[in-house]
Design brief:
The complex is a heterodimer of chains A (about 70) and B (about 250). A two-stranded antiparallel sheet of chain A has the order 1-4. In chain A, strands 2-3 form a two-stranded antiparallel ribbon. In chain A, about 40% of the residues are buried. Chain A starts with 5 loop residues before the first strand and ends with a strand. Chain A has a single domain, classed as Alpha-Beta Plaits, CATH 3.30.70.20. With about 70 residues, chain A is of the alpha+beta class. Chain A contains 3 helices and 5 strands. In chain A, a hairpin with a 2-residue loop joins strand 2 and strand 3. Chain B has about 250 residues and is α+β, with helices and mostly antiparallel strands. Chain B folds into 2 domains: about 150 residues, Jelly Rolls (Sandwich), CATH 2.60.120.10; about 70 residues, Arc Repressor Mutant, subunit A (Orthogonal Bundle). In chain B, about 40% of the residues lie in helices and about 20% in strands. Chain B is built from 9 helices and 12 strands. Chain B starts with a strand and ends with a helix. Classes of the chains: A alpha+beta (about 70), B alpha+beta (about 250). At the A-B interface, helix 1, helix 3 and strand 5 of A face helix 7, helix 8 and strand 12 of B. Strand 5 of chain A pairs parallel with strand 12 of chain B.
């Protein structure tokens, strides 16, 4: 779950822009709010495109990155 | 350029865009809805009667996700307004690199400068998902600006905000400060993979770096191309710590 993107339901205004740009089609609107993610599709993405976070006008959807140092 | 009017009952049999990017503009009186015109910033503050008058100058255009609807350098045909979806406006360098100028969301306008002045498109525009646009030709725009002073005031406000955004972008790109600041943030927040350090969104990095989110995205891409980091699904992996420290201006 820590690897999933974060949705703030109170900030979501149901504009659906995130759904329209999602490259893996894993976002849906339920009762005009982004509340459910098709987890299987989202997990299949090898790399976060972060388009949903990019287009959201209210900052309701977040793609948090962990930053690590690769040991050689 | 030729125009044809399509009666609503025949709309389904006529492709709206037979040759995307080269198509003749097909005018459809019924497609443009006054209610949707209200959502456009340019037309903010206008009465229903005024919007109804403006409606006859507008046409609808639909674009599929991923399609480039405007090509930089091509003759501009119209100014557009986003009704639904998101459009990315960008310029492309000689070696194929894209620089995003801004995103346009419902209510926003794009292609204003050639729309007002004539001349070629200053940038390209790609639909990020399915997009519906309303367009107005340059000659019709002049009529609207003359007849509706409120529109002119709205246009000035929109263009002022656009200039402010672009000046900030130029500053960030010119001095490379942003990439250095992002490099520093990555070093500060790097953990050992056990999840002890907080995760960061690009929006949070932007706030810390004092820049726009799209600049953070570009900086991360630049750092990846330079081999100092690798972007994974939910992680930023620092692959060359010393090079990143140098980029960040961290003195050892």
């Amino acid at each position: 779950m820590a690897e999933m993107l974060i949705i703030d339901r109170e900030k979501c205004n149901g504009c659906g822009l995130c759904v329209s740009v999602c490259t893996c089609k894993s976002l849906v609107l339920v009762n005009n709010v982004v509340t459910v993610i098709k987890k299987k599709e989202c997990h299949q993405c090898t790399r976060w495109c972060t388009r949903c976070e990019e287009v959201c006008p209210t900052g309701a959807i977040l793609c948090p990155f962990e930053i690590v140092i690769e040991e050689h | 350029m030729t125009y044809s009017r399509v009666a609503p009952e025949n709309r389904h049999s006529v492709p709206l865009l037979p040759n995307p990017g080269e198509a003749d503009i097909i005018l459809d009186d019924m497609a443009v809805q006054v209610e949707l015109l209200k959502s456009i910033t340019y037309f903010s503050g206008l009465s229903l009667a005024e919007l109804n008058s403006i409606r006859k100058f507008t046409f609808e255009k639909t674009v599929a996700g991923g399609e480039i609807m405007l090509f930089e350098g091509e003759p501009a045909k119209a100014l557009y307004f986003v009704i639904s979806g998101v459009v990315k406006v960008f310029k492309t360098s000689a070696d194929g690199k894209e620089q995003v100028l801004y995103l346009t969301r419902p209510g926003d306008s794009l292609n204003e400068v050639p729309g007002f002045e004539g001349g070629p498109n200053l940038a390209s525009a790609r639909a990020m998902g399915a997009v519906v646009l309303y367009g107005i030709r340059k000659s019709d725009l002049e009529v609207i600006l003359r007849d509706y002073p409120q529109v002119t005031l709205n246009v000035i406000q929109v263009l002022s905000q656009r200039v402010e955004h672009l000046v900030s972008l130029v500053e960030d790109l010119s001095f490379r400060h942003v990439t250095s600041r992002v490099a520093k943030i990555l070093l500060e927040y790097a953990g050992d993979g056990t999840g002890q350090r907080p995760r960061l969104t690009q929006q949070e990095m932007a706030a810390m770096a004092g820049t726009a989110r799209e600049m953070v995205g570009r900086s991360l891409k630049t750092l990846e191309e330079e081999g100092t980091i690798r972007l994974e699904r939910h992680r930023v992996v620092i692959t060359d710590k010393e090079a990143l420290r140098e980029m960040a201006g961290v003195v050892t």
